[in-house]
Amino acid sequence: MYAIFVAAEGGTEHNPIIPLWQEIVIGSIAFAILCFMLMKYVFPRMEQTFQARVDAIEGGIKRAEAAQAEANQLLEQYRAQLAEARTDAAKIRDDARADAEGIRQDVLAKAREESDRIIAAGKEQLAAERATIVRELRTEVGTIAVDLASRIVGESLADEARRRGTVERFLTDLETVGAGNGSANGSAVRAS
Amino acid sequence: MIGQSVVLAEGEVPFPPSVEDFFLPSIVPWGAHNSYWITKFTALVWLGVALTIIFFLVTYRKPKLVPTKGQWIAESIYGFVRNNIAVDMIGHRGVAFAPYLTTLFVFIFVNNLWQIIPFVQISPMAHIAFPAILAIISYVMFIWVGIRHHGFAKFFKHSLMPPAPWFMQPLLIPIELFSTFVARPVSLALRLFANLFAGHIILLVFTLGGFVLLNADSFFLKPISVLSWAVSIAITFLEALVIVLQAYIFTVLSASYVQGALADEH
């Protein structure tokens, strides 16, 4: 029945897989315009943007790496400086210790010298005093001995003794004999 | 004419839909049946192209390193085709083909999109002329690229003679000739056209079918028209998938043909 209608309508039936040439023309122009506009004004700029973005990211990474390297370098530098400072400090400490030791030695030497000097002065003084005392004693002991002998022997002996230096001689003998021995000395004195 | 005949005969909605539903009267001159310069189809193509160009030019007027939303969408479209189709299939040389492939993808997608835009609901791609142009461009391009890469004789030898024993070649060469140089453009064009054509037919069937059921004599058939319209809405969602998928397939196949033409091994 439809076939009859179609025949009656007079062949305006379209075949869907036969393209209309007008549409081919229009489609080609439209697609060409789209291609031209997008390929000339849009996609190249997109590629540029992508590239710029890649560069920005890579640049950022590079900057970060440079900063990291610089920081590492500074760290190394500080470490080196710190080590140097430690060495210096150790050296200063050693020097100070050595100085202190030297000073101590000096002080000790001075002190020893001083003490030696003081001891020597004391000894000298003692010796001087001793000599004085011995001299006084010698006079005194001689007098006492003479007095004692005068009392025992008699008055006349005093002149005799004075004349002959008996007491001097005795005391010199006494000293010679009893140089090392005090008690002997005493007993000799007593004996005379 | 069948649909119109039915209308004339019964004074009702044109049903069932026919091929003639794809050949609407022209806009200028108004209502003419044999004028094809300015019709709904060509108008939609122009409008689609214009909107696409405006979209890309506006969103990419001042590109920034940190993209705005519009710029991001535009970049995503190009980046998707560039990285996921061109570079993935062709390799590093694919970057050179990314602009063409993206334009192809966008053109098909936008024109397909009319299929589900309310009050338009028909895609220019349902006319074979438009898919045919694109198929021919892709066809010429992959042959051109192959000849430029390999040289004329080597490209055809490479394309037509698979690595097989010599006595198999008389069998293989015609098969390769047909599959590479005949079936490829035809299948590209027909696949896209037929999907959109059939999609529109299905939408018509269920939408007009609803009216037919509503006007049916039997009272019990009338409520079923609601079901019919519900199905047409569901089909619209299916079409949304189809239009993206077909744009993608067309682009991927074009890229794969270029890749085949550039490949050094068979």
TrEMBL record, chain A:
It comes from the Bacteria. This is ATP synthase subunit b. F-type ATPases have 2 components, F(1) - the catalytic core - and F(0) - the membrane proton channel. F(1) has five subunits: alpha(3), beta(3), gamma(1), delta(1), epsilon(1). F(0) has three main subunits: a(1), b(2) and c(10-14). The alpha and beta chains form an alternating ring which encloses part of the gamma chain. F(1) is attached to F(0) by a central stalk formed by the gamma and epsilon chains, while a peripheral stalk is formed by the delta and b chains. F(1)F(0) ATP synthase produces ATP from ADP in the presence of a proton or sodium gradient. F-type ATPases consist of two structural domains, F(1) containing the extramembraneous catalytic core and F(0) containing the membrane proton channel, linked together by a central stalk and a peripheral stalk. During catalysis, ATP synthesis in the catalytic domain of F(1) is coupled via a rotary mechanism of the central stalk subunits to proton translocation. Belongs to the ATPase B chain family. The keyword Hydrolase does not apply. The gene is atpF. The chain crosses the membrane at residues 24-43. HAMAP family: ATP_synth_b_bprime (MF_01398). Keywords: ATP synthesis, Cell membrane, CF(0), Coiled coil, Hydrogen ion transport, Ion transport, Membrane, Transmembrane, Transmembrane helix, Transport. It is found in: Cell membrane. It is a single-pass membrane protein. Residues 57-95 form a coiled coil.
From TrEMBL, chain B:
Keywords: ATP synthesis, Cell membrane, CF(0), Hydrogen ion transport, Ion transport, Membrane, Transmembrane, Transmembrane helix, Transport. The keyword Lyase does not apply. It is found in: Cell membrane; Membrane. It holds the Pfam family ATP-synt_A. SUPFAM superfamilies: F1F0 ATP synthase subunit A. PROSITE patterns: ATPASE_A. It is a multi-pass membrane protein. Gene3D superfamilies: ATP synthase, F0 complex, subunit A (1.20.120.220). The chain crosses the membrane at residues 37-60, 95-114, 126-145, 192-214, 226-249. InterPro entries: ATP_synth_F0_asu, ATP_synth_F0_asu_AS, ATP_synth_F0_asu_bact/mt, F0_ATP_A_sf. HAMAP family: ATP_synth_a_bact (MF_01393). NCBIfam families: ATP_synt_6_or_A. Belongs to the ATPase A chain family. Key component of the proton channel; it plays a direct role in the translocation of protons across the membrane. This is ATP synthase subunit a. It comes from Plantactinospora endophytica. The gene is atpB.
